[in-house]
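Dear colleagues,

As part of the handover before I leave the project, I'm documenting each prediction I ran so the next person doesn't have to rerun anything. This entry is a single chain, and its sequence is reproduced below.
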Amino acid sequence: MKNILVLISFLSAFIFYSCDDTIEPYGELPDGYAINLVLKGDDSLQTAYISRLYQPDDFGSVNQEVDPAVEGVELSLQNVLTGQVYFFRDTVDNENLNPRYNTPAKYYYLADFWPEAGSWFNLSAKFPDETVLTSTLTMPQTIIPDESETTRIIPGAFVDRDTVYVTAAWLNNNIKLVKARKVYFDYYIRQPTGEDIKYRKYLPVGDVPSASAIGSDIDISYSDRADVRRTFLNVALKEISEGNPVKGSYAIGPVTFEIMNFDEGLSEYYHADLFYNYGFTIRNNPSDFTNISGGKGFFGGYTYMKIEVPFQSNWLMDNFGYRFYEE
């Protein structure tokens, strides 16, 4: 997912330099490599980024002009429980340029691979100079929806209905593992040609100060549930057709909860609060956070679950003039 790629980019940005509190602002980095890979439970295409370690020429800037991406590495992933080994392919993507170096994107990929929940994986990277980097992880367990706590339909029956929140809840999760939640609904606008154009509206999780807080950022929490205030849902439903009197051209899909259950490595990374703004200090060094043996970098993974809560079609029509979208 996009947010995980942002995480990889953030990790990579810090992995190539080290800070010290002596007169020389950078500590010496050994010759070596860094590898970053997050196994995605919601995608069958797994991508890894491998780079040389380097130091910036000037304090306060990174003037590296040569693309540090490393080609020709034998990168493999072994399922320890089954013994099966999967090999990544080395690729140069000429259609996507690295804007920093104005060079084609270079990465490793493993296609048609879904990491199973609870699986134990060994990662191995063998370089042309015979350097070997290794790491290991255990994927989190499957996310199981808690039907008793999850909203079944919006608005739902009046008996025993939570009139404050729309909720998705799940079971069998380690409280020490971080969960990422993203909530949205898709809506479709009928065009004069009869074509339906799809859009997406994100919803805030929990109690936020105002409807302006609605955004697309993933919400990070240790909680085993995600609550969306019904008042913010109503605001979002109104906002999508502001200024358009033809409400009947709108069709609304279900409220969708996407949940990602992070493994111990990803959880520790977020728990370490490495995104904290340390001000002017140069002693705090996020690049110290690594779980790669023989080099730098990060190996993590997450499992994924999607929970959909549909609308009552008559409620949408009576309150907003919209239709419920059915595929």
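The first strand starts at residue 33 and ends at 40. Residues 1-27, 274-286 have pLDDT under 50 and may be disordered.

All the best with the project,
I.
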